[in-house]
Amino acid sequence: MGVLQLLKSQFVCHLVICYVFLFSGLVINLLQLCTLPLWLVDKQLARRINVRLGYCISSQMVAALEWWSGTECTLYTDPKSFPLYGNENAIVVLNHSFEIDFLCGWTFCERFGVLGSSKVLAKKELSYVPVIGWMWYFLEIVFCKRKWEEDRRTVAQSLQNLHDYPENFWFLLYCEGTRLTPKKHQVSMQVAESKGLPKLKYHLLPRTKGFWVTVQNLRGTAAAVYDSTLNFRNNETPTLLDILNGKKYHADLYVRRIPLESIPEDEAECAAWLHKLYQEKDSFQEHYTQTGRYPGPTVSPPRRPWSLINWLFWACLLLYPLGLLVAQLISSGSILTILASVALCSAASLGVRWMIGQTEIGRGSSYGDKEVPLNNN
Ligand SMILES: CC/C=C\C/C=C\C/C=C\C/C=C\C/C=C\C/C=C\CCC(=O)SCCNC(=O)CCNC(=O)[C@H](O)C(C)(C)COP(=O)(O)OP(=O)(O)OC[C@H]1O[C@@H](n2cnc3c(N)ncnc32)[C@H](O)[C@@H]1OP(=O)(O)O
Ligand SMILES: CCCCCCCCCCCCCCCCCC(=O)OC[C@@H](O)COP(=O)(O)O
């Protein structure tokens, strides 16, 4: 192990990274809160400011992936579609099998200049996560309870609000609705069988209602669906803790651009279209598993310096007062103050550990792992 790699695996480095993330995140959340009155006066300006504030948070995680772990990303796509990426609104459909698939998605957003404005259909529970979840309120992220009767109205309304969004955005949809586990796969394939649909080897059966409502409500706003399939080389399954430890990976993303007009408007036809898409995605995965690559040409859009510059800015701003505080603490010699500070640091560390836990499949929800009474009509 080289010196740099040894350094990256040190707990103290992780503490520094997490300290900067947590405190800068809370400061930015506060600044976002301050933009509330501006929404009443100039909504578009408030949105643009929030896009930049959001970037200051999400790009720190991107910096961890791109600059700290040095993870590389290769894009497999049609060269004719390439110039459109980042220059139009799009709905991104991505497989949901990895703990850091969202982070790889963000990295591509960063490289195409849409990180601050990127959106997702996210489960409601994530809105309570400090820093990221709170940031999402101001970025008009669409939340769902994964209960269609309750979601159908709120999701459609939130999507309608994006019609006049002032910046290009990618709207991410994990149609599988939850991360893949062997149990969830088994249950969802039972559902597939009951519906007379072909079984999928690498994906859960997609939930079609969210896709239909998204496509219908973003017609005229989004130009295309980017069908995206992500994999890591050498069958790796990276975690956020691996990234914090500075482990390097290689992500491969296969993207097909599908014009939105080519997707059926009728709900049943749209659902059938999505099922067919997932059958195709399954075959791309199979191809990747067999050959270690996707079909077609590759490009490696370069990482940009902004995420690193942003991190350095916040680190300089926050580490200086921290250093002063620690020095003062030690020189004070008060056992009570030192104990109180240690307790505060431990609480902050536990808080960040809980946040990291949100990305862990082992701590995931039970959504989709219950046997359902099947209707064979
Ligand atoms: C050039 C580069 C290109 C790309 C770069 C890539 C990406 C970058 C893009 C953007 C990045 C942006 C942000 C990323 C940052 C962070 C993201 C973080 C995380 C958020 C992720 C989540 O929270 S995922 C969970 C929430 N989202 C979803 O669930 C979406 C999918 N779900 C739906 O659409 C659902 O329909 C619903 C949520 C709208 C409603 O849920 P409900 O449970 O009520 O679903 P349904 O009504 O659909 O379910 C009933 C039907 O389903 C059948 N059923 C029952 N059991 C199962 C089962 N186990 N599996 C499958 N189907 C099942 C049942 O029979 C019913 O069938 P019907 O025929 O009646 O429909
Ligand atoms: C600079 C780097 C600092 C790193 C340390 C700080 C880490 C803080 C991490 C906060 C992460 C919170 C955002 C998480 C997004 C999680 C995405 C995700 O994968 O959600 C799961 C849902 O899709 C489905 O849930 P399940 O039904 O599978 O359950």
From TrEMBL:
Pfam families: Acyltransf_C (PF16076), Acyltransferase (PF01553). Residues 90-212 form the Phospholipid/glycerol acyltransferase domain. Pathway: Lipid metabolism; Phospholipid metabolism; CDP-diacylglycerol biosynthesis; CDP-diacylglycerol from sn-glycerol 3-phosphate: step 2/3. It is found in: Endoplasmic reticulum membrane. SMART domains: PlsC. The keyword Acyltransferase applies. It is an enzyme of class 2 (transferase). This is 1-acyl-sn-glycerol-3-phosphate acyltransferase delta.
